[in-house]
Amino acid sequence: MYLRIAHRGAPHLAPENSLKSFEAALPFSPDMVEMDVRVSRDGHVIVMHDATVDRMTTGRGKVVLKTLAQLRACRLGNGEPVPTMAEAVDLLKGKTDLKIDVKDVGIEDLVVNELRRAGVVRRAIVIAYGRKALVAFRDLCPTLRTEVGGVFSGRSRGSAMADAIQTGASILSTRHKIVTPTFVQECRTKGLAIHAWTVNDKKSAARMADLGVEAVATDRLDIV
Predict the structure, then answer these.
(1) Does some domain include residue 223?
(2) 172 in a domain, yes or no?
(3) Element of type H or E holding 219
(4) Which residue range is the domain that position 65 belongs to?
């Protein structure tokens, strides 16, 4: 059976990537909780999926152009401020494994430093995009597990596998609809695991189980 990853926490119960969302995921006993991280203008790692705050908060504008104070002034739908990675990691450490989806390139050292500060390197996986970021994580922290992000289509899986092999990554982060028996077999022969996203219904979950993927990310821990 696959591992269950709480995708941005439990977004059916609280705004995605909020502290309340992460907290709400825990009673469902996920194997991992996933969060997306970006960097503020003044070098703080915050939790946010989009490049802008527009969709999820009361604010407007690009994350990278705002200071931490400006980002904290942006309120999520439940009134929470945008959380920092430190807050989210401290909330979850010791309770579940962590998956950190690193959306900005060039912040690998900041992410590694945060994982080391919290003492959770061995209980974390980072998703990185592109060989440069994957190599940076490998060089900064060889014991940290890395996952190749961005496998959206069958056409991209070959380059993703090559990136994994060249950088020592052990997992492909893959859209569940493109997973096929052939894809699974290719990964097996190369020693790569598949973590499929975003699986939110029982039929898709059963298909992933039948194919033998190692983990699924879901918004609906109550269903999957």
Answers:
(1) no
(2) yes
(3) none
(4) 3-218
pLDDT band at 150 (very low <50, low <70, confident <90, very high): confident
Bridge partners (DSSP) listed for residue 98: 33, 124
Q: What is the pLDDT of residues 92-101, one digit of tens each?
A: 999 999 999 9
CATH of the domain at 60: 3.20.20.190
Question: What string of DSSP letters covers 79-148?
Answer: SPBPPBHHHHHHHHTTTSEEEEEE-STT-HHHHHHHHHHHT-GGGEEEEE-SHHHHHHHHHH-TTSEEEE
Distances (CA, A) of 124 to 35, 81, 143: 11, 24, 10
Total tally of structural domains belonging to the chain: 1
CB 49 within 8 A of CB 103: yes
Claim: this prediction has a pTM higher than 0.85: yes
Residue 158 lies in a domain: yes
Helix (H) or strand (E) holding 171: strand 171-175
Q: Give the single-character DSSP code of 66.
A: S
Q: Tell me: the pLDDT tens digits for 181-205?
A: 999 999 999 999 999 999 999 999 9
224 part of a folded domain: no
Which residue type does 112 have? V
DSSP single-letter state for residue 163: H
